[in-house]
Amino acid sequence: MCDEIKYHWIGQNLNLKMKNKNAKLKISFAVFAPHPPIILPDVGSAKDRKKVEKTIASLNFLGEKLKKINPDLIIISSPHPDWGIKVPLHFLTSKIKAQNAKSQFKIQNCQSAENILMNRPEEKIVYPVLTAFGSPRQHYQWGEIFYESGLHKLINQKIALIGSGDLSHCLKKDGPYGFHPDGPKFDNDLINFLKTKNIEEIFYLNDKYPQASECGLRSFCFILGILDAYSDQFGKGWHTKILSYEGPFGVGYLTASFNFRN
Predict the structure, then answer these.
(1) Judging by DSSP bridges, how do beta strands 73-78 and 158-164 pair with one another?
(2) 227 vs 53, 143, 197, 206, CA distance in Å?
(3) Contacts of 188 (CB under 8 A, 6+ apart)
(4) Which residues contact 181 (CB under 8 A, 6 or more apart)?
(5) Residue 176's CB: how many other CB atoms inside 10 A?
(6) What is the DSSP code (8-state) at residue 105?
(7) Which of 17, 126, 155, 187 lies at a CB distance of 3.0 to 4.6 Å from 167, suitable for a disulfide?
């Protein structure tokens, strides 16, 4: 994929308001996707993949949707530099590549949002962003800044956003970290808060359920920050559609998509 993927934390103030309502940037696709290697056909057995067929079906559905959109730029946030990027892209971009050989995506090392505008090649770009150790709220603010400091300046571009991450790893006794009651509570609350668009409560999920052992919350909050900044600029509210959730191996796998309302 790439030799090294780096993240860039942007420490700027947040008092940036977008006033150009005529900008032609369009966020055409936004999703949360899980990233367990076991769902890959060359990793998981047929028996294992059968247990996560809802997740696989949801990701294949989103792959067909993204193929029709044929985006110019994909921004994928993840806590992991390897499978956190590769697993979602396997499902979401393979159909684009199969559709047209010219629609190959170049993986570009992470930089600041401003650098997306500099020396931008003609090829389609996948732009990975690795999460850091800041709080969920800080990652949300990072997403806002990422949009406001550079992303909104892209003209005539179709943008796809992918928040890669898994939910609690403590859902079952035989799971990777055993069972802890914080696990299912974390997952249930996150899904409910996404449905009701209660972002403020999402920020406190780690404090509320410290033993949930999740890995996707910061990645998700980064994408939510971009979505809200885009919504503020164009006056488009977004809503969440939960496509699937399951945890047969003791880890929560959430697949969700976001749509905009005028």
Answers:
(1) parallel
(2) 28, 8, 12, 21
(3) none
(4) none
(5) 12
(6) E
(7) 187
The single-letter DSSP state of residue 166 is: -
Q: What is the largest CA-CA distance in the chain?
A: 53
Distance, CA of 193 to CA of 80 (rounded, Å):
24
Q: How many helices (H) and strands (E) does the chain have?
A: 8, 7
What is the distance between the alpha carbons of residues 168 and 181, in angstroms, rounded to a whole number? 10
Q: Which two tokens stand for residue 240?
A: 């969440």
The C-alpha torsion from 139 through 145 and 146 to 151, rounded to 10°, is: 150
Other CB atoms within a 10 A radius of the CB of residue 164 amount to: 30
pLDDT of residue 127: 86
Q: Measure the CA–CA gap between 234 and 25, rounded to whole angstroms.
A: 10
Convert the pLDDT of each residue in 167-218 to its tens digit. 999 999 999 999 999 999 999 999 999 999 999 999 999 999 999 999 999 9
Q: How many residues does the chain have?
A: 262
The region that residue 146 occupies, defined by phi over 0 for left and psi between -120 and 50 for alpha, beta otherwise, is alpha
Q: What is the token pair recorded at 40?
A: 């890959």
Beta pairing, strands 253-261 & 237-246: antiparallel
Coil/strand/helix, residue 103: helix
Sheet holding 26-33, edge to edge: 105-107, 124-130, 73-78, 158-164, 26-33, 253-261, 237-246
Q: Predicted confidence band at 6 (pLDDT cuts at 50, 70, 90)? A: very low
Report the alpha-carbon distance of residue 228 to residue 128 in Å, rounded.
20
Provide the 3-class DSSP secondary structure of residue 133: coil
Paired tokens of 150: 């550079």
